[in-house]
Design goal:
Blueprint (H helix, E strand, L loop, with lengths): L13 H15 L11 H8 L3 H13 L3 E4 L3 E4 L4 E4 L17 E12 L2 H7 L6 E11 L2 E11 L6 H4 L6 H9 L3 E11 L3 H7 L7 E10 L4 E10 L3 E4 L8
Length: 248
């Protein structure tokens, strides 16, 4: 518990002071992934506080995804969360910021379907128009991190599902095989509850956090080439957002 100081006369609750001190030690690397943290009794004795207050500190670290518990052994520092950029990149591997991670994809299905109202509206096509539906499960260091389902108008990429490779970038195939240039994309992000299928694929419990990212990707001529829905684990993710320079 290196250099942790608390002020018992402060209006800031003791549990919060300690919690933030441990957060700083974890983020600074003093406590590394899978290091054991001090026990409730050790914290209580060190700072002359109640065991309930010490327990609250550790519970909050676990709730924030910074620590995990092993029954009978203690509380340990969690692995660093994956950081995603939702700013400029359209490549899944390029969205992972500053971490040396092993990334792979597993193709779940690639089918031709008829566009429903939601898909047609986002792709700006007619209802029942043929589209390709491609779903992939994304792994990072063999942990299933996201379930991504892409919808693309068949008329723009005929035969795509025969060309779709498990690991190859979808956009690279589109550019190489069809000569289409991706230009821009817009994304929305919201917190959601996973359904049974998503929970099974991502190895989550139904009450664990997740995000839904919806993206619409356009070609240089303005046509929409893809509507994609991604369910992303919330327990192992955080987001990096870069704001543009303020214009005077």
């Amino acid at each position: 518990m290196k250099d942790i100081q608390i002020n018992k006369h402060s209006i800031i609750p003791i549990y919060y002071q300690l919690q933030e001190a441990f957060v700083d030690l974890i983020n600074s690397g003093y406590y590394k992934a899978d290091d054991i943290l001090p026990s409730e009794n050790e914290i209580a004795k060190k700072f002359s506080i109640s065991r309930n207050t010490a327990q609250r500190v550790l519970n909050n670290l676990v709730s924030r995804g910074l620590a995990y518990r092993v029954q009978g052994l203690g509380t340990f520092v969690a692995n660093k969360k994956i950081t995603y950029s939702i700013v400029t990149s359209l490549s899944y591997s390029a969205e992972i910021i500053g971490l040396n991670k092993n990334i792979r994809s597993k193709l779940i299905f690639a089918n031709e379907i008829s566009a429903n109202e939601l898909i047609a509206r986002n792709l700006i096509i007619n209802i029942n128009e043929p589209v390709y539906s491609i779903q992939r499960l994304r792994y990072i260091d063999e942990i299933p991190m996201s379930l991504q389902t892409s919808f693309l108008p068949k008329v723009l990429v005929p035969g795509l599902i025969e060309k779709q490779a498990e690991e190859e970038s979808l956009f690279k195939i589109i550019n190489k095989e069809y000569g289409l240039d991706i230009d821009s994309a817009t994304e929305t992000l919201q917190a959601v509850k996973v359904n049974n299928y998503e929970a099974k694929m991502l190895e989550l419990n139904l009450d664990e956090p997740a995000f839904l990212i919806e993206r619409i990707t356009k070609l240089k001529n303005g046509q929409v080439i893809e509507f994609v829905k991604t369910i992303l684990r919330g327990d192992k993710s955080k987001f990096y957002i870069e704001l543009p320079e303020k214009q005077s």
